[in-house]
Structures are given as structure tokens and as C-alpha cells.
């Protein structure tokens, strides 16, 4: 098969990805083999290519927002049939035995595996995924529109729940890329007023088009204090900015696997009055199931930018330079 893999980590402009041929994967027990049809381009892929996240193995194939057709079944597989369309997400496996898995917090599993980091992902013509960690995708979504749901959407859903925002509340969103613009639609569907702070003028326009009540620059104070906020931008410098924008008792949820250093916080200005700061770590399979049901009911309208999958390196360069709004998706022609 043809695939992209991380040859040597470094700035994306230096060409850390290599395109070429790799052996076809073979499904093991309880694994399904997918013919990849679409794969979303996530900022985590950029972190992997540039070395902010060290690849867990040499030559790792990125990609964890994968829409594919089942073309092979490993021993013991019963969930899916040949020819079905399924999604392979970021969470690839958990141990099921540690204290966190036993209490239902598998997102905190002590020995998890992740697609495109621990296992080869969707920047390829074929890949395998454990059947228990794959999802059926609502038919309302095309392959292109479905791809970003499988990470950007799921992690946005968990971040929304972690923020504790209630219907009728005021939610701040810092950064407005692939995950944030989906989270905003979910929040507004549930009756929440959304305030967006982002450096991109195009993203500000998109936020207002989607129904945000306010869109301003990343460090701009919203016109009202916020009941909760979610930080999607990987910029630790925005943590005190967002905390100062919270009303008493508000929560800031940081939704990213990588964040630059957080400056020293002022307790009185940024944490007192029971403001809370928490991280969002991966997701559970229940999060994914609940999210996809909600996404299909709304239905969500992902803003996507299609790229030929042979242009994965260009898509990552454009992501790094903020050259598009929404989510990039690699598409394979049939």
C-alpha cells in the first residue's frame, strides 16, 4: 500500500513526512481491516511530525480521524460486516483492568494506545483497528464531513461536558479550528450563548455565521463574564486570559494533548472565587457514542477543506500556517 509516515521529526516546512510504499497490514484477532476513504488532519498529527509528541515507533503512520470501508475481518470479529463504513478514532485501546478502566474512566487508562501514535493510522490506503474501538457513522454525513467528527468532534464533546456549562449559560471558546467550531454548534444547539476569541479574522467571521453572540481577538475580554470556557489553542499564555474572563465559580477546560508553558498565575485575579482550571484527557468510548448520536441529531455541519491524500504534507503545512478555517480532510479517490 501507499502511505505517509514520519521519517524524522522536525519543523513541518523541513519535510518530516515521507511518502512511499509499505507492506499491507493484516488484521489480528478482533481487528478489522479498513480501506481508507478519508482521514481528517488534526493538530496532533502536526505535533507528531514536528516532535512535540515523540512517535512511539520509527516510521509511524499518522492519522486518527479515519473513515473507511471494512475489507477484512480478523479472528473473533462480530461487530461489523464486510462493506460497512466505520470510523477509527484517536483512542485505539485500553487495558480494561487498571483502576481507571474499572471505574469507567478509560480515558485515564494507565496503558492506553492511540491511533496514529502507538499504532499506524489513516495517512495510508489501508489500516487496522480493534473492532471494539471503531464507530458506526451516522448516514447523514459524507466521508469528508464525517472524518473530523472522529477526534475533533469527540474531544470537543468531552471538553464541553468537562466545562460544566449548563443550557442558558455563557461559554467562551479560545481558538476556533476544527474541534472548536464543532463544539460551538453543539453548545448553541443545547441553548448556550457562545463567545469566541481567536486571532484569525476568518475564524471570527465563521463563528458569527454559525451563531456566536461575540467574536473577538484571542486576548480580547468578552463583553460579559463567562460561566465556563474551553481553550482549544495550544497556547499556555491564554490560560490566565481565559481565567480572568470567568465569572465566579466558572471552569476553564483545556482541550489539547500539547500546550505551551502556562505563565505564573495570580491567585486573586485568576483563581479566587472558586474558578477552576482542568485538563481534558482523551475520551471514553461512551463519549464517542453519545457524541455521534448528538451529531447526527443536530446534525452538525463541519467546515471542511478537502485535500488529495497525496498532499498530506501540504495540508499539515497549511494547518501550521493557519491557511484555512475549519478542518482539513485527506480524500482518496476511488
Provide a descriptive summary of the structure in words:
It is a single chain. By secondary structure, the chain is an alpha/beta fold. The protein is 25% helix and 26% strand. It has helices at 43-50, 99-102, 143-146, 152-163, 178-189, 201-210, 238-244, 267-271, 285-297, 312-320; strands spanning 2-6, 17-21, 31-41, 66-73, 85-88, 91-93, 113-114, 126-130, 135-136, 170-174, 193-197, 214-216, 226-231, 246-254, 276-279, 304-308, 327-331. Strands 3, 4, 5, 8, 9, 16 and 17 form a seven-stranded mixed beta sheet that branches. It has a six-stranded parallel beta sheet with strand order 12-11-10-13-14-15, with helices on both faces. A two-stranded antiparallel sheet has the order 1-2. Helix 6 (201-210) links the parallel strand 11 and strand 12. The longest helix has 13 residues, at 285-297. The radius of gyration is 19 Å and the shape is globular. The model has no long low-confidence stretch (mean pLDDT 96).
Q: Segments where pLDDT lies below 50 for 5+ residues?
A: none
Q: Could you tell me how far the N terminus lies from the C terminus, measured between alpha carbons in angstroms?
A: 14 Å
Q: Tally the helices: what do you get? A: 10
**E-strand count:** 17
In round numbers, the mean pLDDT is 96
Main sheet: strands, sense, barrel: 7 strands, mixed
* Strand residue percentage: 25-35%
Rounded to an integer in angstroms, the radius of gyration calculated over CA atoms is 19 Å
Shape: globular
Helix-strand pattern: EEEHEEEHEEEHHEHEHEEHEHEHEHE
Instruction: Estimate the helix proportion, in percent.
Output: 25-40%
Structural class: alpha/beta
